[in-house]
Structure formats: structure tokens, C-alpha cells
Amino acid sequence: MNARAHQLKVREVISETADAVSLIFDIPTDLTPRFSYSPGQYLTLRVPSDRTTSVARCYSLSSSPHCDDRPAVTVKRTPGGYASNWLCDNVSPGDVLTVLEPAGNFIPRTWTNDLLLCAAGSGITPIISILKSALTLGRANVVLLYANRDRASVIFAPQLHQLLRRHPRRLTVTHWLESDRGLPTSRAIATWARPYRRHDVYLCGPAGFASTVKQGLNQLRVPDRAIHQEQYRSLTDNPFEHHTPVTTPAETPPAGAATVRVDIDGETHTLPWPRTEKLLDVLLAHGIDAPYVCHESACATCVCAVKHGRTRMLQNESLIEEELAQGLTLACQTLPESDDVHIAFDQ
């Protein structure tokens, strides 16, 4: 099993709506550093399955590390969704779940800029973590657009009401209920968002909602670099059941292999790096506990820095231009381009 998987006790289960629950975890003292997280990140939970032993699902942290005592994820039922239904129906206080350490890069880089937060349905989970953190850490204004089917579907309604009372000058919340107004249109979004077009945008929700919001913001000439979107997708690789092939590192590097020096967890390893093998696969094959979740470039859990040498990525769905310019890369997609490469996971 993934060495970054840990057993966590569920301290509390909160019913947020008829279809959504929040799971609050107790973190043992020795694991506190490993479960330090940033607003907008997520946890990957192992859900038992009779058919496949287990399934892995990612759920955003709805708590804020800056104003909540314990980490919490919020799970909303989805039609035919095995994992979400199992978690909503079966988890009770005192139960123990297997959980990967926090991951994800849907994280504000600064807390000084005004924020425009757009969410629909369960997309509110990382958004409320960012919202609470912004109100706690800085003086910026925060605007939330939250779309739902109807009033009963609004997750965190009491929490949002309390935050509005506590921060009446800095927080603005607009609820868009389909039962009252129909689905939002790009023109309606543009009209509503005009006063906030210079804010940094964080967006999370179903594809249709996200597309409509971006079209509306495009009408206001909001630059793409100002729009940050969290995208949920199913994992094709189960990090809880992933079995790394047992290999015996060769005494001499394969012909044409590069040499990589890797700084990770306070140690340095020097390894042969075959030209056609991704860095993450090389590390796992040598028994090195590199961080990963998805193997698909989507989660940014395996991000590392190229300190020396040249590499290339086969695919990138996580890193932005500024991060690429800083030399960051994704181990799960990275191949060597030069003979000698120095990689650092310890940032």
C-alpha cells in the first residue's frame, strides 16, 4: 500500500443536507506534520469494495487550516456513485478510514487580492475553505456565487450565514437557485460579475456550470490567467492497491540511461534513469516513497523541481506558466533530456 496512506479516526459526522455529510478527522500528534494542508487541497479516501477490494476517491477539504481545529472533507451523494453513497450511509464517529496525505494545487498564491469565488453543488467544498481562509488571513474582499437546484440543496447554508454576519463589509454571497431563476446563462454571469471583473477567480463545479461562468467572464475580458479552476475526475490508478513491480536495480546503468540525483524526505539518491521511463516509475521501482495519487498529471501531488539538467513532460494538466518557469515538473510525466539531472522534492 502507498506509504503516504494513514489510518485516521473519524471524530464527527455532520449532516449538511439530505445528500451531503462532512467527515471530521482526528489527526494523531505524530501525523500532524503530514496532514498540514493548504486551503483548496483534498484528501484521497479508501472506500472498501466487494468487487475490487477498494476504490479511491478524492474529496476536497472543506475546513480551513487557519480557523478550524481539525481537517474535514464533505461528501455529496451522486446518482450511482458507489463511494459517495457508501461514505454517506456507513461512516460513523469512531470509524477508521485509510486516507492519503493532502494533495492538490487549487490554492491561492496570495491572500492580498480580492477574490471572486464561483461554485455549484458540491463544488463549494474547496471554495469555502478558501473563503474562510481569506477572511481570516487578509483584508481582501470576497465575493461568492453559489448555484444549486433549490434552497434545500445549499451546503453550508448556516455557516455562510454566520460568516456574512461576521464580515458584512468584506463578504458578498449570491445564491443562484435553479428552482427560482433557471440555469445561469453567460450573459447573466457577465452582468452579475461586472463589478468584480478585476478579482482573482476561483471556480469549482460541474462542467456545464464552469463553462458558462468562463464564457461570462470572457465577455468581461477577464484574462485566463486570473481564472483558476478545480477539475474533478475519476482516478484510473488506485493508489491504495497499486503494486510497484519488484525490480533489482542494475549494477550498471542501462545503455544510454541518464543519471538522476533526487533529494526527497531529507535523503539524496543517485539512480540510473532510462530515457523512456517516467521519473515517478523509476523512483517507485527503487523503493523510494515518492508522493503520488493520480499518475495522470491532474493532481500535482508529485510536483518536484529540476535543479540541474533538462527534462520534458509528456502531459501537464496542473502546473501554470509561472510554476514551469520556476523549474517545477510532474514526476509522473517527466522524462530526462540531458545525461545528468538533479531533482528536488524537498521545497
From TrEMBL:
Alphabetic keyword roster: 2Fe-2S, FAD, Flavoprotein, Iron, Iron-sulfur, Metal-binding, Oxidoreductase
PROSITE patterns, sorted: 2FE2S_FER_2 (PS51085), FAD_FR (PS51384)
Pfam families linked: FAD_binding_6 (PF00970), Fer2 (PF00111), NAD_binding_1 (PF00175)
TM helices/strands, residue ranges: none
InterPro entries attached to this UniProt entry: 2Fe-2S_ferredoxin-like_sf (IPR036010), 2Fe-2S_ferredoxin-type (IPR001041), Beta-grasp_dom_sf (IPR012675), Cbr1-like_FAD-bd_dom (IPR008333), FAD-bd_FR_type (IPR017927), Flavoprot_Pyr_Nucl_cyt_Rdtase (IPR001709), FNR_nucleotide-bd (IPR039261), MRET (IPR050415)
Ranges for domain FAD-binding FR-type: 3-109
UniProt protein name: Ferredoxin--NADP reductase
Cofactor: FAD
Domain 2Fe-2S ferredoxin-type: 258-347
